[in-house]
Fold this sequence. Notes:
Elements: E1 8-10, E2 13-15, E3 19-21, E4 43-45, E5 62-65, E6 68-71, H1 80-91, E7 97-102, H2 107-117, E8 124-128, H3 145-158, E9 163-166, H4 174-183, E10 188-191, E11 195-198, E12 200-201, E13 206-207, E14 213-217, H5 222-235, E15 240-243, H6 249-258, E16 262-265, H7 268-271, H8 275-289
Parallel strand pairs: 3-16, 4-7, 7-8, 8-9, 9-10, 10-15, 15-16
Antiparallel strand pairs: 1-2, 5-6, 6-14, 11-14, 12-13
Amino acid sequence: MSDISTKVNLCGVELKNPVMVASGTFGSGEEYSEFVDLNRLGAVVTKGVANIPWPGNPTPRVAEVYGGMLNAVGLQNPGIDVFCNRDIPFLKNYDTKIIVNVCGKSTKDYLEVVERLADEPIDMMEINISCPNVKEGGIAFGQDPKLVEQITSDIKKIAKQPVIMKLSPNVTDITEMARAAEAGGADCLSLINTLTGMKIDIDRRTFVLANKTGGMSGPAIHPIAVRMVYQTAQAVKLPLIGMGGIATAEDAIEMILAGATAVSVGTANFVDPCTTIKVVEGIEAYMRKYGVKDINELVGAVHER
């Protein structure tokens, strides 16, 4: 019997440990399953899924940058029907929680996916509100507090599973968006999504990405993510999933101390597919080193000097 408990509870869903994968960096688990024992993860968060197949953006759509990467993949996905028939049955073979990331270009798009997932054997849904809202002139749902509250409320009316709203960091005040999601009835928040960035090829004098801009992720954004998680933990009463540049157990523990109940590993999966397992083991080692019996003792435990 273990001398420590790494179990965490996210709005009624118990995870064996707080480590999960960030959407879009792990597919739906199958391609990583030969490197990573999915049974050892708290949860697998799938790549974003829409009501119909999305082709994604033109190439090139990924670029390496200082301290991370830019991506403008454009949420390429096979659509909800293929996902339900292929990916959910695969994940059900493992003893891990299943969190489905949902994307859309209009409220109707999101609601169609949420409705389709109602009777599927999944544990939670993570709603990607960094998608551009086509009806609002392309502004992301997550950049307007009124839109955040409205779409959260609309989804909660029909959702059968707990709803995680994934917050965009591309805003003036992330706590305003967090409070809006809480007001709309969100069960949990995840943050941060990618920061908007750009890279230019100086020899060709052209944009490296066909989309011009892309989402910046990786170690360089970690301090920003920690700050936003800490601010959000002070502003709302919801459980938080912290992400953004987590590459080591130390990074994950920092997020937990800032107020996150669980953490997601993203870009680091591309560098080392075994990162998540190393983070799980590193958290356990830290707990033993400091005599922490229950990981929940660490949530939000940062204090002033």
